Description:
- This protein has helices at 12-22, 36-45, 64-73, 92-99, 111-121, and strands at 3-8, 28-33, 52-56, 82-86, 103-106.
- By secondary structure, it is an alpha/beta fold.
- The chain has one domain (9-56, 64-88, 101-120): 3-Layer(aba) Sandwich (Rossmann fold).
- Strands 2-1-3-4-5 form a 5-stranded parallel sheet, sandwiched between helices.
- The longest helix is centred in the first third of the chain and has 11 residues, at 12-22.
- It is globular, with a radius of gyration of 13 Å.
- It starts with a strand and ends with a helix.
- InterPro entries: Bact_response_regulator, CheY-like_superfamily, Sig_transdc_resp-reg_receiver.
- Keywords: Phosphoprotein.
- This is Response regulatory domain-containing protein.
- It comes from Flavilitoribacter nigricans (strain ATCC 23147 / DSM 23189 / NBRC 102662 / NCIMB 1420 / SS-2).
- Pfam families: Response_reg (PF00072).
Amino acid sequence: MKKKLLVCDIDQKTTQLLSRTLQQHTHIEIILKRCGREVLNYLKRSPVLPDLLLINTLLPDVDGDYLTQIIRIKDKFKGLPIILMSGNYDDIDRLAEAVGASDFLRKPLSAEKVQEKVASIL
Length: 122
Protein backbone atom coordinates (compact mmCIF):
# COMPACT_ATOMS: atom_id res chain seq x y z
CA MET A 1 0.00 0.00 0.00
CA LYS A 2 1.25 3.47 -0.89
CA LYS A 3 2.22 5.93 1.80
CA LYS A 4 0.53 9.33 1.47
CA LEU A 5 2.76 12.37 1.80
CA LEU A 6 1.08 15.78 1.88
CA VAL A 7 3.29 18.70 0.80
CA CYS A 8 2.21 22.29 1.47
CA ASP A 9 4.37 24.88 -0.28
CA ILE A 10 3.83 27.65 -2.83
CA ASP A 11 7.37 27.45 -4.21
CA GLN A 12 7.27 25.55 -7.48
CA LYS A 13 10.98 24.65 -7.36
CA THR A 14 10.49 23.03 -3.97
CA THR A 15 7.41 21.06 -4.99
CA GLN A 16 9.13 19.90 -8.19
CA LEU A 17 12.21 18.75 -6.28
CA LEU A 18 10.07 16.93 -3.72
CA SER A 19 7.92 15.31 -6.40
CA ARG A 20 10.91 14.27 -8.49
CA THR A 21 12.83 12.94 -5.49
CA LEU A 22 10.02 11.11 -3.74
CA GLN A 23 8.09 9.76 -6.71
CA GLN A 24 11.11 7.62 -7.53
CA HIS A 25 9.80 5.54 -4.66
CA THR A 26 6.74 3.78 -6.00
CA HIS A 27 5.35 3.34 -2.50
CA ILE A 28 4.80 7.11 -2.01
CA GLU A 29 1.81 9.12 -3.24
CA ILE A 30 2.32 12.89 -3.09
CA ILE A 31 -0.58 15.25 -2.41
CA LEU A 32 0.22 18.91 -3.15
CA LYS A 33 -1.47 21.82 -1.35
CA ARG A 34 -0.62 25.50 -1.64
CA CYS A 35 -1.99 27.04 1.56
CA GLY A 36 -2.93 26.22 5.12
CA ARG A 37 -6.65 26.32 4.42
CA GLU A 38 -6.28 23.61 1.77
CA VAL A 39 -4.35 21.43 4.23
CA LEU A 40 -6.97 21.80 6.96
CA ASN A 41 -9.82 21.11 4.52
CA TYR A 42 -8.03 18.01 3.25
CA LEU A 43 -7.39 16.71 6.77
CA LYS A 44 -11.03 17.28 7.78
CA ARG A 45 -12.53 15.66 4.68
CA SER A 46 -10.16 12.85 3.80
CA PRO A 47 -11.20 9.42 5.07
CA VAL A 48 -7.51 8.42 5.17
CA LEU A 49 -4.95 10.72 6.77
CA PRO A 50 -1.57 11.25 5.14
CA ASP A 51 1.36 9.36 6.64
CA LEU A 52 3.49 12.52 6.69
CA LEU A 53 3.10 16.28 6.16
CA LEU A 54 5.84 18.55 4.81
CA ILE A 55 4.87 22.16 5.50
CA ASN A 56 6.71 25.32 4.50
CA THR A 57 6.86 28.00 7.18
CA LEU A 58 5.88 30.69 4.66
CA LEU A 59 2.43 30.16 3.18
CA PRO A 60 0.09 32.72 1.60
CA ASP A 61 -2.61 32.51 4.27
CA VAL A 62 -0.89 31.37 7.49
CA ASP A 63 2.61 30.64 8.74
CA GLY A 64 3.48 26.95 8.60
CA ASP A 65 4.51 26.92 12.25
CA TYR A 66 1.08 28.25 13.24
CA LEU A 67 -0.58 25.71 10.93
CA THR A 68 1.36 22.99 12.74
CA GLN A 69 0.04 24.24 16.07
CA ILE A 70 -3.53 24.25 14.73
CA ILE A 71 -3.11 20.67 13.51
CA ARG A 72 -1.67 19.57 16.86
CA ILE A 73 -4.69 20.92 18.79
CA LYS A 74 -6.98 18.26 17.30
CA ASP A 75 -6.67 14.88 19.02
CA LYS A 76 -7.22 13.14 15.69
CA PHE A 77 -4.03 14.72 14.28
CA LYS A 78 -1.72 14.74 17.34
CA GLY A 79 0.34 11.76 16.18
CA LEU A 80 0.56 12.89 12.57
CA PRO A 81 4.24 13.35 11.61
CA ILE A 82 5.05 16.87 10.38
CA ILE A 83 8.30 18.16 8.88
CA LEU A 84 8.62 21.95 8.75
CA MET A 85 10.61 23.45 5.86
CA SER A 86 12.19 26.89 5.91
CA GLY A 87 14.87 28.99 4.31
CA ASN A 88 14.11 32.00 6.49
CA TYR A 89 14.72 30.80 10.04
CA ASP A 90 18.24 30.11 11.28
CA ASP A 91 16.73 28.42 14.30
CA ILE A 92 14.22 26.24 12.42
CA ASP A 93 15.24 23.33 14.65
CA ARG A 94 14.04 25.17 17.77
CA LEU A 95 10.93 26.47 16.02
CA ALA A 96 10.01 22.96 14.83
CA GLU A 97 10.40 21.59 18.34
CA ALA A 98 8.44 24.46 19.91
CA VAL A 99 5.38 23.95 17.68
CA GLY A 100 5.36 20.16 17.88
CA ALA A 101 6.81 19.28 14.47
CA SER A 102 8.50 15.90 14.16
CA ASP A 103 11.49 17.26 12.25
CA PHE A 104 12.64 20.07 9.96
CA LEU A 105 14.34 20.70 6.62
CA ARG A 106 16.38 23.79 5.75
CA LYS A 107 15.97 25.29 2.30
CA PRO A 108 17.38 25.09 -0.24
CA LEU A 109 16.48 21.43 -0.09
CA SER A 110 18.75 18.66 -1.28
CA ALA A 111 17.36 15.41 -2.65
CA GLU A 112 19.58 13.41 -0.28
CA LYS A 113 18.41 15.26 2.84
CA VAL A 114 14.75 14.98 1.80
CA GLN A 115 15.09 11.23 1.25
CA GLU A 116 16.88 10.81 4.58
CA LYS A 117 14.27 12.72 6.61
CA VAL A 118 11.27 11.14 4.89
CA ALA A 119 12.73 7.63 5.20
CA SER A 120 13.36 8.15 8.91
CA ILE A 121 9.64 8.80 9.44
CA LEU A 122 7.99 6.53 6.88
